[in-house]
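Extended Data, panel c. Modelled sequence:
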Amino acid sequence: MNVLVIGDGHTYGYGLPGGKLSYIGHFIRQIKRSGQAVSVEAYAFHSMMQGLSTLKKLPLEQYDLIILQLDVAIIQPINPVRKHKDNQPLLPYLPEVGFKNERMPFVSRLKTSLGLLLTSVLPIRSRTYFGALLKQIRPYRHKVLLLTPFPNQHPLEQWLSQRSGNIMLSLAEKQLVSIFETNSVIGASDEYFLPDDSKHLSAVSHELLGRSLFDFYESAPTIVTVQTVRRGDKWFDV
């Protein structure tokens, strides 16, 4: 089973103590326990636009499962200038290299949040990044799992996470794309985050997400799961 994962630093467990698994690690562990052999190709991005740019370059037909972790930026209207600017090849980050986490200056973060706030309360149109994503993955929707934005302890950003997540849920369901609501599993309280870090999830959150995502994967009506069966002395994927 070939699995593609595109997300931020949480895909490899940014900030977790040694030996602790990311939510993807927990998800894959559950699949392996069911007797499935798994190969994972994971990409971690600094921005949602980089993630979308990477997705366009990959042979999606070659994967059995595609997991896309989304953030609030994806509900913004498409910016042609930004689209060309971010059209750069993206390589997988290696966990040992680390994940650059520069805190955005307050004024810049406020401007970004207010811009997203305005976008989130306006009627969403097909020319948003999310609309373009749904169009791109339509031929592969039977093997795609989308994740709504993760919780955040900053009040405005948490509101944006929930608001944008609701928009994504509504649109994805209309397109018959499976989407996992992360805010239904973890919240914005301290135990879900790393100490002194309002953005990155704790080991507890990763485990909860990974296990819940696996349960969702098994039950999602639009997902065609790959199951291995034995016939005689040979194994077949069905």
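The longest helix spans residues 155-174. This feature is highlighted in the accompanying rendering.
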